[in-house]
Specification:
The protein has about 260 residues and is an alpha+beta fold. About 15% of the residues lie in helices and about 45% in strands. The protein has a domain at about 105-260. The strands form four sheets. Strands 12, 13, 14, 15 and 16 form a five-stranded antiparallel β-sheet that branches. A four-stranded antiparallel β-sheet has the order 4-5-6-7, with no helix packed on it. A four-stranded antiparallel β-sheet has the order 8-9-10-11, with no helix packed on it. It is globular, with a radius of gyration of 22 Å. The N and C termini lie far apart (about 70 Å). The relative contact order is 0.10.
Length: about 260
């Protein structure tokens, strides 16, 4: 006689799995495709992160670098204070996508970090707990269309730098997003330089970039690694009309995808 088979609802299964340590989740990736894909959703990532906060399973990350055979290699050291309340090196995590420059770090958001290389459009969404990377597609930024009509197509894009950025969570659509600014340098036939700035927004859910109208403000050189609070991102701006060139605060709403000034 066969015993009756009892199956738990998937919602209950995910609730149980969200309370497990990362090592167990890594093993359970191989159980089925549904579990593997569910572990990558913003809802599960957020749920698992909050459960870790309750259990005080927190680590400290240090960004470091080393020289090996005359090559520059950045890496992170993950520190744990579980033994005698002293930080010890739990593991060293090398960054395979950033071999020659230390990336800028934005976050953390629900345990995730956004890594951005300023000189290129190279970026990554990183989960230090699982050591998994999600690589966004190449930048969607193109030459502003009005340049060709004004200058008769004489301007050539010679440089693009990706500086200021922010990484946050859009609770309205249950999606992680990255907003970043792109500084474009053009040169005309007379070797005169023209400068323009644009912004682009990345969606974790759709895995794509889209252009956002530039707010037209010059951001300061001050680096803010965690400038996104409750889905609103903030930057300091420069303005010659203000004392010490300190301008208003520029903000961006991840849900409405709009800039505003404070």
């Amino acid at each position: 006689m066969h015993r009756p088979r009892f199956e738990f609802p998937e919602v209950l299964v995910m609730e149980i799995l969200s309370k497990l340590p990362v090592r167990s989740l890594t093993r359970f990736n191989c159980v089925c495709k549904y579990w593997c894909s569910s572990f990558q959703t913003p809802h599960f990532i957020s749920k698992h992160h909050h459960n870790n906060l309750k259990n005080n399973n927190l680590n400290l990350l240090l960004i470091r670098y080393e020289y090996d055979d005359n090559t520059f290699q950045p890496y992170f050291s993950q520190l744990s204070n579980q033994k005698d309340k002293k930080y010890i090196v739990k593991q060293n995590i090398h960054l395979p996508f950033f071999k020659y420059a230390i990336p800028s770090v934005y976050g953390a958001c629900h345990g995730l970090l956004c890594l951005q290389e300023p000189s290129t459009d190279k970026a990554a969404i990183w989960n230090p707990s699982t050591r998994e990377f999600k690589i966004p597609p190449p930048s969607s930024i193109q030459c502003p269309p009005y340049f060709s009509s004004i200058q008769d197509g004489c301007l050539t894009l010679v440089d693009a730098s990706f500086g200021h950025a922010a990484f946050g969570f859009d609770s309205k659509t249950d999606d992680y997003k990255v907003i970043r600014f792109v500084a474009l340098t053009f040169i005309n036939s007379e070797e005169e330089h023209h400068f323009e700035s644009q912004a682009e927004l990345y969606s974790f859910r759709s895995d794509s970039w889209k252009e956002i109208p530039s707010p037209g403000y010059t951001l300061t050189h001050l680096f803010l690694g965690n400038n996104c609070v409750d889905g609103i991102c903030y930057w300091k701006t420069e303005c010659p009309a203000f004392h010490d060139f300190v301008g208003p605060i520029l903000s961006f709403d991840m849900a409405n995808e709009k800039f505003s000034i404070l």
